[in-house]
Amino acid sequence: MIRFFIAVLAFVTLTGAAQAEIKIREVTSPGGITAWLVEQHSIPFTALEIRFKGGASLDAPGKRGEINLMTALLEEGAADMDSRAFSAARDSLAASYEFDAYDDAVSISARFLSENRDQAVDLLRLALQQPRFDPDAIERVRGQVLSNIRSDLKDPNKIAARVFDRLAFGEHPYASSYNGTPESVAALTRDDMFAAKDRVMARDRLYVSAVGDITPEALGALLDRLLGGLPATGAPMPHQAPFNLTGGVTVVPFDTPQSVVVFGEKGIKRDDPDFFAAYVMNQILGGSGFQSRLMREVREKRGLTYGVYSYLVPKDYAEVFMGQVASANDKVGQALQVIRDQWERLARDGVTAKELADAKTYMTGAYPLRFDGNGPIANIMVGMQMQDLPIDYIATRNAKVEAVTLEDIRRVASRLVKPEDLRFVVVGQPEDVTVQN
Amino acid sequence: MRLLNRIFGLFAIIWAIVPGAVLADDVSAFTLKNGLQIVVIEDHRAPVVVHMVWYRAGAADEDPGVSGIAHFLEHLMFKATDNMKSGQLSATVAANGGSDNAFTTQDYTAYFQRVAADRLDLMMTMEADRMRHLKLTEDDIRTERQVIIEERNMRIENDPGALFSEQRIAAQFLNSPYGTPVIGWKHEMEALSRADALAFYRKFYAPNDAVLVVAGDVDPARVLEMAKSHYGPLAPTPDLPERARPQEPPQTAARRLTFRDPRVAQPYVMRTYLAPERNAGDQKEAAALFLLAQLFGANSATSLLGQKLQFEKKIAVYSSAFYSDVSLDPSTFGMVVVPRDGVSLKEAEAAMDDVIAGFLKDGIDKDEFARLKMQLRADAIYGKDDVQALARRYGAALTSGLTVADVQAWPDILQAVTEDDVMQAAARVFDRRHSVTGWLEKPLFQEVTQ
Question: Among residues 410-439 of chain B, which lie with CB inside 8 Å of chain A?
Answer without folding.
Answer: none
